[in-house]
Amino acid sequence: MEQRILGFITKYIAGAFYIPRIQVMDVVEVLILTFLIYRVILWIKNTKAWMLLKGILVLAAFILVAAIFRMNTILYLAKNSVTVMATAAIIVFQPELRRALEKLGERKLLASVLPFEPGKEKVRFSGSTRENIVEAAFAMGKAKTGALIVVEREIQLTEYAATGIHMDCLLSSQVLLNIFEHNTPLHDGAIIVRGNRIVSATCYLPLSNNMGISKELGTRHRAAIGMSEVSDALVIVVSEETGAVSVAQGGSIFWGITEEELRSRLVLAQEKKESRSAVSGWKVAEWWKGRRKDEKKTDK
Ligand SMILES: Nc1ncnc2c1ncn2[C@@H]1O[C@H](COP(=O)(O)OP(=O)(O)OP(=O)(O)O)[C@@H](O)[C@H]1O
């Protein structure tokens, strides 16, 4: 048995000491692959694919042992079940894969090379829309009227808008107050804001599966976090119970924020350039640093 292990290692080392001729394109290829692998590892770390990776590592170790000891039946089964397992993984991780591809699309490679996009406005929604949202959110907070407002950014939320009642109405604080008024047909669920207009009301949002979310937060807040996990939207929640205004972004909730904090988050969401860089590159680090200050701990 010892000889078998030694033989395996010697064969492996003999293969590893072969030094091929390295050309410029090989270096470029290695750099590209390094970057891609780094991004995949980051993605795995931030999603439940981390558990999948752990499972794959255990399986790989098991298969390695089987290869060393020449357990042919196990090797045969492993070889033939790879396709089935890959298909199963794609089905199970479909939401995460979709989100990863959407993020790739968000970056707009061409746009980041070109300094400007002709014919496109610099802001997503006007200052007046921003102020109307702030005004209505805190007015509803004062009156303890529950509300859920999704402000769309780069990722289109058409499929979530389709779960509600189509509106296409110019946003104003009065309209917001009216929509979320108790016992009215449109008060339940979320509204989706695109630009300066309310696209849809009574929309159903995906609930977050995050086990770390405080038990004090009910389904309205969980839906806000869920929506921010699957998109880059800024989701504003007004608690019916406490009147607190919170914002969910990037899978985290910033609970009980002030008027000024909500305004500055909306300013960031408003600028098209800012929102694009807020999900990529070094800005992410700044954003993370910033969010630690006012983020409500979700594990209490
Ligand atoms: N998946 C969802 N999508 C959209 N809206 C939802 C969803 N789930 C719940 N809601 C909204 O949240 C309301 C229920 O809020 P609930 O009291 O459970 O949550 P909460 O987080 O404790 O909020 P509050 O502090 O306002 O009580 C529902 O009436 C509905 O309007």
Name the CATH class of the largest domain: Alpha Beta
How many strands, what sense, and barrel or not for the largest sheet? 7 strands, mixed
Shape-level CATH architecture of the largest domain: 3-Layer(aba) Sandwich
The coarse overall form would be elongated
Protein name: Diadenylate cyclase
Enzyme class: transferase
EC number: 2.7.7.85
Subunit structure: Probably a homodimer.
Short description:
The protein is of the alpha+beta class. It has 13 helices and 7 strands.
Identify the notable features of this structure and list them briefly.
2 domains; disordered C terminus; 13 helices; binds adenosine-5'-triphosphate; 300 residues; DisA; 7-stranded mixed sheet; alpha+beta; YojJ-like (1
Could you describe the 3D structure shown?
The chain has 300 residues and is α+β, with helices and mostly antiparallel strands. It folds into two domains: 85 residues, no CATH class; 168 residues, DNA integrity scanning protein, DisA, N-terminal domain (YojJ-like (1, 3-Layer(aba) Sandwich). Helices cover 56% and strands 12% of the residues. It has 13 helices and seven strands. Strands 2-4-3-1-5-6-7 form a seven-stranded mixed beta sheet, with helices on both faces. Strand 3 and strand 4 form a beta hairpin. Helix 7 packs parallel to helix 9 and helix 7 runs antiparallel to helix 11. The longest helix is centred in the N-terminal third of the chain and has 23 residues. 24% of the residues are buried. The chain binds adenosine-5'-triphosphate. InterPro entries: C-di-AMP_synthase, CdaA, CdaA_N, DisA, DNA_integrity_DisA_N_sf, DNA_integrity_scan_DisA_N.
